[in-house]
Queue: 4 jobs
Job 1
Amino acid sequence: MNTIQWLSHLLGGKERFSPKTGYQAEFGKNGPQIAVTLAFCELLTANCLEIRTQEQIHLPKRLYKLRREVDLTLLTEIEQIVAGEMSNFCTFPLLREKAAKKLRRSKVLTQTDAYLAEQQKNAEHYRQVIADALEYNPMVSVC
Amino acid sequence: MSHETKTPSRVYIDVTNACPLQCLHCCTASGERRADELSLVEIINLVDQVQGMQVKNLVLTGGEPLARADLPAILRHACQQGLNITLLTNGILLDRSWAKLLAELGVRVKISLDGVSAETHNFLRGNGAFEMATQALERLRAAGAENLAVHFTVHRQNCREIARLPELLSELGIHNLVVGLIKPSGRAKDNPALLIPPAMAAYVRQKIEALTHCEQITLQRLSDKCWGSDTEDLFGCPATCNKLGVGATGETTTCTFLGQEFMGKNVREYPLAELWQQHLAGGKCFVANAECAECPNLPFSGGGCRARALYYRQDINAPDPYCCASFAKKRFLDQHRPLLEQALAGPELAFQD
């Protein structure tokens, strides 16, 4: 199974051939939400987001915003879409809804985004991202 | 173990400054052969000194080491001395006869591939470089060379390709991967658009670390430890303590990335062991400035990379901004640990509020 097939399988979609861009993956029903959640977790755990907490009657409400110093050109295409929805503080559900809509409108996942498939063993790769963050050791590092 | 009894973990020898490429990020700005490069006799003598210092690991680099016609004699001699040899090459000149020799001698070969496609690799190195590098890896495999690795230097233009490296390595049949970040040194300083902004260092490192979950490759990390005051088990910049480099014309350095300005005395004038002892006697080449000394993480981090401190802060003793970014990430994660623990159980719920 190639990366595109694997990716579309993970995100509940199907592989499609476009004469312009070759084989690409389409999102399935929950694909955009999964992809947005993963991108959000990547950005959060890489210290790219600010978190503001608003006290409410029952639970604190968390708002997220992209840090000003983040260089968008380094982000993957999906992360760029997600980051683009966080120029102001917003809640995760709102972010997910807006970014997923934008992602779905983009219709397909490109070859560049096949990174999702390469790294994840299942569609819950974001748990791995978070687990890594909880184990983060700044001393084990690349030069 | 005191500093005086330490030997460098490895010695680098730039066997030439000559290189057929003019890579945009070359940390030594290699290209032309220098008129006064070390002769074969001098390098053979140097290899003997390395062996005499009980150093186990010898790294031959350049320039492009294969541009040196008498390299086989150097390799054979180093092998006879029982040294573990690593050859850093761009692979451009690596034909079948080189592949056969390197395989026979059991040399560890690291070939630079700075892109998963010809487009990104050749952008830095010139047309045809990707094809020649991948062909070199094929030739080495065909010759039976076992100790092969791809070295990927992350810069601003290829950062988004990190996650696709396992795919490339699988295609090439290579398991070992070394990933390093571009250093503000040599020609890279003339191309600052290639450098990773310090604010993105933690993000990029996270993408690299994610590769450890990939079963088909082995991500090789730095094994160097900094010499700490209380414990040996600290990460730090090895340049400050346990590696030694010899330039193509014989000057010594503890870190090539610091550039010509920081080159030390010449092996033509002093024995290598004496230069090493002088380096040790000179104390730390890094003394944290007031700002860096204030950091509670300094004892653990060893201060990070001095070349980056020099470039970004114009002070070799200043904080390395990448090191600061790593610890800022750690502080952020610690601050939000309850949220992350909740998210581990169910990201959907944790972020819903």
Note: Strands of chain A lie at 15-18, 22-26, 49-54, 61-66, 108-109.
Job 2
Amino acid sequence: MAEKFDSLEEHLEKFVENIRQLGIIVSDFQPSSQAGLNQKLNFMVTGLQDIDKCRQQLHDISVPLEVFEYIDQGRNPQLYTKECLERALAKNEQVKGKIDTMKKFKSLLIQELTKVFPEDMAKYKAIRGEDPPT
Amino acid sequence: MGGDRAGQAGMMENFSALFGGAEPQPPAAAAALGFGPGKPAGPGSAPPPTAAAPQSGEDHSRKTAASSGPFYLMRELPGNTELTGSTNLITHYNLEHAYNKFCGKKVKEKLSNFLPDLPGMIDLPGSHDNSSLRSLIEKPPICSSSFTPLTGTMLTGFRLHAGPLPEQCRLMHIQPPKKKNKHKHKQSRTQDPVPPETPSDSDHKKKKKKKEEDPERKRKKKEKKKKKPRPSFVWSSPLPIPGLYPRMHGKLPLLRLLLQAIQLSTGFKKKKKRHLVSECSWYHGNPRKSPTCICGTAFLAGIRDLARTRLTQAS
């Protein structure tokens, strides 16, 4: 799994470096550097080909669209992961609280119903079997 | 009245027929998908004595409903093995390490902190220079599916004019400022002009506070400077005179005693701050022994000023 990402990362790094060098050549262009520029342009095309080849290996990877929003805003995409984890934990705690409350409610309801309808509740308990009030 | 009762009995029969054994079977497709009537069979209903067909989920639920006796809406309780929100899902999926990594310490806000080696100003929003990934997804560029190398004739289109690019086009060379705690002021002075960043609210507040504090601090400093009498260092020449200071060095304890006597008589207090040996014009021998100077040049200068004023008063 990591190998796929490593190769993509390597290709991306090479591509970025090539673009950086291309930028340097272009920023102060000299007629003698035309050959170098042509070479860099062709490297750019081969770099794009290499990146495109990596697509086949990563077809099963899905990226949430929200991450792109973070990147577009110039924010660290790790913040998205952080927020996701925090949200998951908060929701987990919330649901746990609800489940615990419902359990308490159930036990109290059974307790009160046995006072009012002892026979029916005995039947109910017989059907449910081992269902002790929590 | 009798007719009414008969009508009511008929109604009840229809009602019991709805929930009783006469209930029509749901379509096979719906049952296979897990869809069916929400309510299980009523109290009067009984399962067919012999089930020739293989038991589906629907039949099973009906059977349990039938065994539930007088109770409606009896359903099987979820098993304990089922994963619910009552368990800590982060520990369940072994995400503790990730949680501690991202939520334990502060994650830096900017994209340049995540990709420090990427050239150019990447912290700017993508909408600024129309380079957002969102626009790439929404409006993909119209091009062929494969990449073909540029031929010689194609490359003739990339002939450029000689000379440097204008300043506004040199975005590639501008790097985001890297913060260092030690040399904050120095960096801010020496930094190249950088296009304005998108500061967060907290950054903006901090800047405002600094602006508010700065004039007050300056005033206080000025007041302090005014209050402090500056001793003149005319007496202690900055230029070392060879041959003179070694002689003085031997008499330094004697001189110090004399000065102490003057201090006691005049009430002049010695300044606490001492200067470094390297800054002093007195000869101290080995400066490694004590980095701070013991000659008390400032003290001497103060005494001299005091003596002068006394002399002028006496004259």
Note: Residues 1-56, 186-208, 229-250, 281-291 of chain B have pLDDT under 50 and may be disordered.
Job 3
Amino acid sequence: MIISARNLNFAFGEGDLRKQILFDVSFDVAPGEVVLLTGPSGSGKTTLLTLIGGLRRTTEGEMTVLSRPMHHARKEDLVANRRDIGFIFQQHNLLEFLSAQKNVELMFQLHPEVPAGEARARSAEMLTKVGLGNRLDYHPSRLSGGQKQRVAIARALVTRPQLILADEPTAALDSHSGRDVVELLQSLARDRGCPILMVTHDNRVLDIADRVLSMEDGRLEESRGTEARGETETQ
Amino acid sequence: MLSSFVVAWRQLSYHRMKLAVASAGVLVAVMLMLVQLGIRQGAMDNSVAIARRVTADLVVVSPRTRTIFQSSQLPRRLLFRVGAHPEVDAIQEMYMGQARWRNPWELREHPIAVFGVDPRSPLINFRGLSELADELMLADRVVFDGLSRKSYGPVVAHLANHDFLETEMNLHRVRVIATINVGVSITGDGNVFMSPANFRRIFPQRPAGSVDLGLIRLKPGSDVEQVKRDLAPLLGAEATIITREELIDKEIAFVRESAPIDFIFGMGAAVGFFIGFVVVYQILYTEVTNHLPQFATLKAMGFSDNKLLQIVLSQGVILSVLGYVPGFVMALWVYEIATDAIQMPFSMTWQRALAVFSLTLVMCLLSAMIAIQKVRTVDPADVF
């Protein structure tokens, strides 16, 4: 299992101000799976994503990501774990002073073992795969919203992560480019057998998923999937 | 791999105007520090320049004297006592005073420093004086310092076309026969040199038997400290004998305690440092703040705080160099102007250049380290 979560609980705040976000969440993601996580705002989707990404500490329950236990992990281990994960955010947050290629190449700072020449070549290759081969030297200000998000995808994939976490990557895009971005993401991940966990509101893209998990009030339930695989805990 | 340094440069150079402002801030800081520290050194050097010119091994001064520029006199007869010591090679009396020099072009008087010393082989380095010795032994012949300030009139230009220049000092007619280049200090605007006999003619009210300094040259290979100990009892309480080095130290100590040179110019340099610090901090801080979401994103992706610190520190280094180089050139230019304007030579020393560069680097790195604090506290989970 790429991700294996058992009986996760998570709360913000202490004492009277304590607000529990996740209740007894258990699920698995198998290698190569594309799993969508849907649900209304405030249902806890993003919080779950930050726990998986090691951006917040798992305090109650058990979770293993990429064979590393996340519960009670040290801060350095959490940071190290993030380097094996490709992140795609709602906002692309590209550095505006770097060209598309340099933004992608920057990720190799986390992988100093890759020689500079190879890093440059792989960045160009990845941008070509997302259809921006002719925009390598463009700064983000000269790219459209969809193109920027595609640069962000290239950035997430270029270091060959073992897992991709995406948080509403289509939120800032119109339906057409949103669809393009998601299909691109899916096909690139399929090629390499890289699992994707994507948080989305967007009903138009549900059909690309192997499985759809939906969240409501911090509880997880499996709603539907085109091709159910793996075990899912149902509340 | 794309190095932090390259990323730093791309970020700085993306907004040319900001880069120019930040570099200008560092430039001003560098220039202020170099100029202030340069003037401090120049003022210090100039105040002790006369003491440094002394070539005698031992110097006899009045115990009342704090600085040779305001010396108390001592009885000349005391100097005759020391000649008995077998190690003493030569003894000279030296006179110093301030006279009123009449600018012969505008006919007004200006105070000028006067030195009376045997011109034939003075135990003080007034280069060019001994070549003029024969004529200087004649009555009322004087030599003018060519590096004196302009208020005394165009003496050098006049002597280039004429054999001599006649004017008055203390209402006494003198003939300037030549100029030599010695240099003025912060305590005086100009110098005139002459024989002891002529000095007494200009200062007739001074008792003939009182001198300002006694200069003693020892035979080669003498133990200066030993001779000093031998001679001290001969002089008694009326005069003190010190070595050349002690005289210089005494002058430096006097300048330090009487004129707040260190404080004034040290303060100027500190202000420069502070200006540079604030400008660099302001620029780097806005850069960091404007890119907080991007930096938080990088942190979420696994960049450590130190990796991001490297980028901002590199920006500090880039700004130091970009500001230092033109600041250095401008400081050299200011040194030249200042040398011209106040006729007090300033020079760049590599120690000062290096010290100011280190200060600049510290200034920029410190601003960078404070500017990055915000990134340390940002929670990468907030970018979701």
Note: Chain B has two domains: 2-47+260-383, 63-238.
Job 4
Amino acid sequence: MRKKSAQPAGTPPTPGSADDAAQGMNVASRTQFQLVRARFFRHRGALVGMALFGFILTLAATSIGWGPIPGWWDKSPTGTGVVLEGGRPTLGVWPTFLGGGGVTWGEHPFGQDDIGRDYFAVVMRGTQVSLTVAFLVGTVATVIGTVIGACAGYFRGWAEAVLMRVTDVMITIPTLVIAAVVAAMAGRQGIVVLGIMLGLVTWTQTARLVRGEVLSLREKEFVEAARSVGTSAKRIIFRHLVPNVVGIIIVSVTLAIAAAVLLETGLSFLGIGVQPPDTSLGRLITDYQTAMMTRAWLFYWPGLFIIGIALSVNFIGDGLRDAFDPRQNRVRD
Amino acid sequence: MLVFIARRLFVSLWVFLAATAVMFILAANANDPLEEARQLPDNEREAALATITERMNLDKPVLIRYLLWLGSAITGDLGVNRQGQDVNAMLGTAFPATLQLLAAATVLAIVFGIAIGVISALRQYSAFDQSVTFVAFVCFSLPLFWVGTLLKQYIAVDINDWLQDPTLSLVMVVALSLLTGAVCSGVLVVDRRTRWTVFGATAGAMAVLLLVLSATGWFADPGLGPVVVALTAFAGAVAITTLVSGLDFTSPPMRAALVTAAVGVVCYFAFGPVLNDPNLLTLLLLALLTAAVSAGIGWFFGGELFRRQAIPAAVLTGLFTATVIFVDRVLQAFAGYAAHSRIRGRVISTIGPSTPNFEGTFWQHSLDSAGHLLLPTLALVLVSLASYTRYTRASMLEVMNQDYVRTARAKGLTERAVITRHALRNGMIPITTLTAYDIGTLIGGAVITERVFGWKAMGTLLQDGIEQGDPMPIMAFFLVAGGAIVVFNMIADIAYAFLDPRIRLS
């Protein structure tokens, strides 16, 4: 990376080399990646989203540990205990100078549920599950969507017709409906199978976007050049076309993850997704929606985490879209 | 164009057929339909297993079962579910409730979403735009069931409690007035002093209005009355005509709209007896009559030159006046409805699509539906509104940057004409596609909303079918939901081709 182009955006470019100056130009050259990165870091919402998402991710990954790795929180999501003070949350954020108790963490920051489980540990486990499923869904859906979209856009004739008809068939079935049916099959086999199966039915949006872009790219000279030297279709698609739609793909990964969080929690709410004894954020809300008037915190925490994840990922996605495709942001003259 | 439609129809039919096959095979494998029967005691088990196997044709391969279903579904027979109940009858009771919910949510989301999107595009980077963008993102990220439960547990209870003694506290008045002022001044693009004047004027007016309404007990027995109906009708006439052809009190369109509003106010009295307890058909006929009469007025007053503007102005004014009269009637029925023995003041309901065994006038039934629809629709609209505002905003911004918009400005058209005639018309074309896409999301949302609010409607068919491994109710659900998606997609494609000559002629 060249040093002069690494400067933050918005400040005037430093005077270029003697060669630039000789030509009367004062412009630092930047790679595509640097341009995108600069635009992304100018997007305030995306930065806040990154911070929030990083925080939630770290909290979920380290607090109760991941699999065999132990975490820093001493209670487990399954361990029951004595319900203290009606299970009320001990987390305090009201500063002392406003007459509050200051920022306290306490014994059970998110409170306890009716059988005395530490709700912070439970919510962390739910967040882990929901995030795992969402990442799997996002990854699987994006890979399938990209391959199908790129092939449908590049090939003509029957290959395109078949792929597009398959996409049309999938679009005809409402996402929640097909996801519910598939989740009913996969839910009992654990969260990894569930995530992959949901990914298998939610790729249509990515496929449509990628196809639209590839359709215009395939007419470009560089593709024609590649074809004229005898490059195979596979190589053209994966070495020439896909790298050119990487912006769309990255954006669609983030949006797919945000949608997947909401889809998985929605399915779990219907009792179809993640099955007990495992839990997820949606499952927690279903389990405790009747307890809402008496122990509102059991209902609030998982909901806030869902919103936090979906909102931060959506903001990151928006920042990425603006960074890769700045056309929408033009200020009207 | 006809060839295009025919080809589109043909393809859609095959796609839909393939989708039913995919859906049936998945649905048949979702769960084990025999699981519950296997838990039965030994003496009953064999018989129960045999009955279910026979009823669901479980001894045949799934493809044969699909063909059997397809064969009878084409003749209109959707079969029986695992318990042997007729699926057609189940669909018949489930469908109207879901349709109500979906129709209300779709229309509201489209109208408000487009309006907010257009305004925030025209006021790009203003405080209004920034807030709308942020709220849209929050709405995007809201889990529907969480919002629904919150609305059900808190808002419903709060509104019902408040209606027991409907007076506004001073804090509420101040908050509502400040909000009104902020929205009104945010929508306008003006210099700072005018903005503050608008803010003060609207907030002050709102505060006075709320205090008067609260003090006179209006919220317990609402209604508009002839004076307010007349004032609203005339104000609406002026506003609509301003949008359609510009603010000029001597212009023929304005005269047509004002006359229409006057005729509407006369009708408010003339049709009084008819409107005491009408049925839906009468109201639809009256709406058609209103449109026809208004069009006539527009045609007459428009003259040769202004007909193209006077007719829409008059028709919109007529329908607007009719809506105001409708709202007035519904509001007048409120006190009687709330005092009804089956309601007892709990107007906002959180269970089911209507009060069982409720007897009352048409207006009270409308209120009953509205009370049940309010919160589920609000939840659905909140979630679906966001995509409409975002897409409309993006589409409008793109159009406003086009050269022909600059040309329109350069040749001296008013800003109103530039926006409504040049930008808006083209900016709305991509929204047709979004509407088709959004209907699938809304159907999924309806399933969750119905569950939250305890509606026994289409969502129940889907859920019971999945739980029992029974494809019949799932397929009934899918025939309606998938059918709606196919039809909407087709309409969107045809509308797109119709609206955009580049596609039609290529």
Note: The CA atoms of residues 84 and 299 of chain A lie 18 Å apart.
